[in-house]
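Annotated sample (chain length 73).
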Amino acid sequence: MPKAKPKAEAADDARPAIDFAIVEETEEEFWATARESLRDYRETGLHLTQEEVEEWMARRARGDRAPMPKPHT
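Output written by the structure step:
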């Protein structure tokens, strides 16, 4: 009869499966958010350009507490 593994070793064996489940859940959440965002854009036409977002992010990186730009059509 095989010996039982120590708890720490058994937990190490489960780690890849746990990591995989976390990645899968994160990917599912990402795609759900992406689908919702696309649906909102198609319904409203509201958006930000990449240039607007990059400018805002650069200001924030410099310490400016600039508010996020308002979406527009």
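Annotation: Residues 7-61 form one domain.
Annotation: The mean pLDDT is 89.
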